[in-house]
Amino acid sequence: MSCYRCPECAYVFDEDKGDAHEGYPPGTVFAELPEDFACPDCAVCFKRDFEKTA
Amino acid sequence: MIAGITSGLGINTGHELGHKKSRLERNLAKIVLAVPVYGHFWIEHNRGHHRDVSTPGDPASARMGESIYKFARREIPGAFRRAWAIEKERLQRRGKSVWHADNQILQSMALSVVVQAGLLIVFGWKMAPFLLLHNFFAWWQLTSANYVEHYGLLRHKDENGRFEKCQPHHSWNSNHILSNLILFHLERHSDHHAHPLRRYQSLRNFDKLPTLPGGYFGSYLLAWAPLLWYRVMDPKLLTLPHINGDLDKINMDPEKRDALLARYGQRQAGAT
Predict the structure, then answer these.
(1) How far is A38 from chain B (nearest CA, A)?
(2) CB B256 within 8 A of CB B66
């Protein structure tokens, strides 16, 4: 499983953990997030802008 | 009225706090936004306005030729609908109904009801007009700020139908000391949209950004007189370097399009 980081605000989407508040359970694969997924913290960056970190 | 103005400034404080990642600051934001019954703002602004800013569909970005009074009728309901839709989607992913107690808009509204009903119980019905006036003034300040912040500015749409990332020239700025002190540097707005989580002390002002004719409060006064506003702002908008008279690069009120083209189309033809 991998982590993806928002280049603007450093929010990290960790596939292992998901994001419970946003309704993405642990094990959610980043690629399966909706195409219009916007960073939950800053909403400046979208899925396509996220960088894979690990 | 004073309380309403204070609450309007409270929305601004809630705005700053609501952008932060820490739970404490976010919860404080929700409480302060509950006072003027504007609890949906935290979601609407962070998740809606920042995503859609300076695009034709954003209810919180004013269009060229749109008066503040027309804008308010689009902005206030539009902002609420967008916040509700975003929250509904989030709850659906969690397998919950939009009416579930986890709905953050409902939580804030419940707090508003407690505060305002409490005041009505303690002071009786004579309190009602004061509450309405208070809420109105708070909302109107926010509407005024939203109106001046992105008037006419438009993000470019690429061939895939995606809007470019919000650039510094997609916000109007001002750097006057009074607004700076009162509004937590909100009017250094370009930097705020580029880096929404940056704390207000660190927001920077840059040269050559779209600049309002005065401080925020002066600009509000101008906005409340639409004909004066157009006279000052429309030429300013058209002469911005990235627009350079090109009306296609402006977020325009569709109903005013023909009139604006007739009036400024000449300039477009002369632009290089």
Answers:
(1) 7
(2) yes
Residue whose C-alpha is closest to residue B151's, from B65, B224, B72: B65
Residue B195: pLDDT band with limits 50, 70, 90: confident
| ipTM confidence score | 0.88
**Complete domains list, chain A, with CATH:** 1-54 (2.20.28.10)
Is A22 part of the contact surface with chain B (CB cutoff 8 Å)?
yes
Going B224 to B230 to B231 to B237, the CA torsion angle's sign is: positive
Distances B265 to B55, B156, B168 between C-alpha atoms, Å: 22, 20, 26
pTM of the model: 0.88
Task: Report CA B108 to chain centroid distance, whole Å.
Answer: 19
Query: Least CB-CB distance to B51: which of A9, A24, A43?
Result: A43
Question: B193 vs A44: CB contact, 8 Å cut-off?
Answer: yes
